[in-house]
Structure to design on (229 residues):
């Protein structure tokens, strides 16, 4: 029987890992101690992740910066930039992009950015997330669930080839002092409907959990891509 060489073994192993991610299974969760396990990428040497964000008042930007710091701590080369910054896509091999929901869909500037750079982004492993105040309602009401479902559908339409597990959703921050009068009225309506008050509803533990899953997916995709070369 012919033995597999290292390249063939790596290809098969990463194919299995990617298959697990495709079906929404995090390989790290197969261990009973996965909840206590820190964020550990498959191969930090192959990881150069670009985090891109669009933000109205800084809440989503802070989430992006938080993700960047978490990745740096485990030795991953990472850059965090706004959609207004110049980005060299050839310098990275994985993308995470985040923006808030506005008027029922991803922030317009973020959608326009995706369309403008679609050819470059299609060449790289990609994941995204959105922030919205409706996510802050716990437990969510039926109306809130319907609203969140509509957001997820809008994101799925924008990224038809992306697995739902690679589209993160997080609660944001509402600071009335940073909102214009029209924005205050809209947010007041949303908060009243969900029986919420102004404040910071970001769940950093949930953000880190999604980041762990997503980072391992991005790196496994890139590792598989390298094995095919």
């Amino acid at each position: 029987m012919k033995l597999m060489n290292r390249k063939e073994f790596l290809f098969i192993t990463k194919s299995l890992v990617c298959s697990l991610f495709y079906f929404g299974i995090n390989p790290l969760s197969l261990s009973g101690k996965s909840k206590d396990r820190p964020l550990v990428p498959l191969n930090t040497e192959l990881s150069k992740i670009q985090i891109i964000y669009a933000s109205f008042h800084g809440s989503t930007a802070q989430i992006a910066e938080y993700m960047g710091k978490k990745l740096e701590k485990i030795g991953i080369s990472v850059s965090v930039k706004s959609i207004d910054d110049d980005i060299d896509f050839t310098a990275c091999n994985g993308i995470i992009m985040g923006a808030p929901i506005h008027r029922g869909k991803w922030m317009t500037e973020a959608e326009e950015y995706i369309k403008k750079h679609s050819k470059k982004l299609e060449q790289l492993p990609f994941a995204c997330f959105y922030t919205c105040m409706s996510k802050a309602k716990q437990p969510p009401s039926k109306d809130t669930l319907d609203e969140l479902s509509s957001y997820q559908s809008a994101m799925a339409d924008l990224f038809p080839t992306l697995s739902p597990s690679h589209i993160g959703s997080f609660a944001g921050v509402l600071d009335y002092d940073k909102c214009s009068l029209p924005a205050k009225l809209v947010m007041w309506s949303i908060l009243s409907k969900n029986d919420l008050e102004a404040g910071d509803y970001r769940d950093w533990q949930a953000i880190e959990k999604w980041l762990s899953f997503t980072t391992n997916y991005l790196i496994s995709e890139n590792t598989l891509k390298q094995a095919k070369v």
Q: What stands out?
A: Confidence is low (pLDDT under 50) at residues 17-38. The chain has one domain: 44-215.
